Amino acid sequence: MKKFQNEIIHKSIFTFLICIFGFWFFIFNISNVNAEPSVYVLKFSGPIGPVSTDYIISGIDKAEATGALGVVLKLDTPGGLDESMREIIQKIFSSKVPVITYVSPAGARAASAGVFITLASDFAVMAPGTNIGAAHPVSVGEKQVSPEMQEKITNDAASYIISIAEKRNRNKAWAEQAVRKSVSVSATEAVKLNIVDFIANNDANLFKKLDSVIAIRSKTVPGKFATAPIQEFPMNARQRFLLFLTNPNVAYILLMLGIYGLFFELQSPGAIFPGVIGAICLILAFYSFHMLPTNYAALALIGVAIIFFILEVKIASHGLLTIGGIASLVLGSILLFQSPAPYFRLAIQTIIAVVIFSVVFFGWIIGMAIRAHTRKVTTGKEGLLLETGIATTDLDLEGMIMIHGELWSAESTEGKINKGEKVKVVKVEGMKLLVKRNI
Are 437 and 425 spatial neighbours (Cβ–Cβ below 8 Å)? Predict the structure, then answer.
């Protein structure tokens, strides 16, 4: 009977939950059907890379899934990776909703990869005080390409941007010059040259002008941008963290923190905390190096510098290993990220700060080691040399003395020493101390 009652209760609870879920699903779908299409607004500032690609593509996907009116990408970029740029452009071309790239705020730019993305958008808009251009491809890898290979890369980029301009009916001649000659223009010139559609002072002005342009071009859009609800689409925590790791200065600092952490762990086994933090920092640093144009020869120089510093603690090189370590650290830091693009290079201030800290840190460690090597021995028989004690018997050549709270057999090196006189140890022979008067 009790089992039967439990089954009824369980079935009732299950039926109740299904009803609640069905009611929620019905209300949710009804609200979506009746809701006015919104405008998704994405904001990205920084170099184009894997993180920006993931963010922009996920934003367009979300807008498509919810039947949005369109996607506005507020862009401010100095350029970035070719592969990431092409992925974004492919998504823009295949998007089911219009994508509007808005170069903003005032003072922003769409350079290099940003030019391609702006031209590829359904609508291209700029804020006053912005600029677009300088799209000549540069090598950001460890090795510099030959002139022949650079020409091939430039020709490929030029043909690609021309095809984009053709598809969007924009200025093909200027687009090619942006790649081949790195030309750049202001927002006003960009409108005159048919590079972008118009200038917008702010979001409200942007949406109002969009409706006018859409009406002129006879495009069918299910709603008005000027009255549509705005849906902000910020980066999630994972994307923000990964973008933070793509900063060369962050990667470099993580590398050094990892090295310091492991050094502390090796010097004090069992401390655990420095080793754990050091290992995590090193893993994050190598993840960053995977996304950055890392020169692994420079990375090896930094490793050699740390080895030299550690060896200086163990070997008396009279400072030669320290000098070699400093030289290796400086050279490795300067060469670690080799790229013509400034956003892929280490800031000189970061290099100076880390090198000074490393020199001071390892100098302190080396100084402690030197003092430990030169410190007088305080334990064992060697620790008794030159120590003072008191004769507990008359030392007529031989007798007993008290030193460090212990009785020792002693022998005088300068004749008879009376009981109670202070003595100094001059030599240790087995279990006997040779002493003289402590004057």
Answer: no
- For the chain, the straight-line distance linking the first and the last C-alpha, in angstroms and rounded, comes to 105
Q: Which residues does residue 428 pair with via DSSP β-bridges, in sequence order?
A: 433
Q: Which of 84, 112, 328, 412 is catalytic?
A: 112
Instruction: Please write the tens of the pLDDT for every residue from 393-416.
Output: 888 778 888 887 788 888 888 878
Contact 79, 137 (CB under 8 A): no
Give the predicted TM-score (pTM) of the model: 0.71
95 part of the active site: no
Which among 207, 252, 209, 246 has a CA at the least distance from the CA of 228? Answer: 207
Give the Cα separation of 378 and 51 in Å (integer). 60
The closest alpha carbon to 108, from 85, 124, 131, 125, belongs to: 131
- Is 104 labeled as catalytic in the residue annotation? no
Q: Which long-range contacts (CB under 8 A, 24 or more apart) does 282-286 make?
A: 282/254, 282/255, 282/258, 283/258, 284/245, 284/254, 285/251, 285/252, 285/254, 285/255, 285/258
Q: Please calculate the CA angle 148-117-243 and round it to the nearest 5 degrees.
A: 95
- The answer to whether residue 93 scores a pLDDT higher than 50 is yes
Tokens 């590829």 sit on residue:
120
**φ, ψ of residue 381 in degrees (nearest 5):** -65, -35
Query: For residue 42, with 0-12 CB atoms within 10 Å meaning exposed, 13-18 middle and 19 or more buried, which class applies?
Result: buried
- Among 11, 96, 152, 432, the active-site one is 152
Give the neighbor-by-neighbor strand order of the sheet with 230-232. 198-199, 123-126, 99-103, 70-76, 39-45, 230-232
| C-alpha to C-alpha distance for 235 and 58, rounded to whole angstroms | 10
Quote the CA–CA distance of 393 and 149 in Å, as a whole number. Answer: 95
pLDDT digits (tens, 9 = 90+) for 179-192: 999 999 999 999 99
Cα–Cα distance for residue pair 423/433, rounded to 1 Å: 11
Cβ neighbors of 37 (< 8 A, separation 6 or more) are 67, 68, 69, 222, 223, 228
DSSP 11-53: HHHHHHHHHHHHHHHHHHHHHHHHSPPPEEEEEEES-BSHHHH
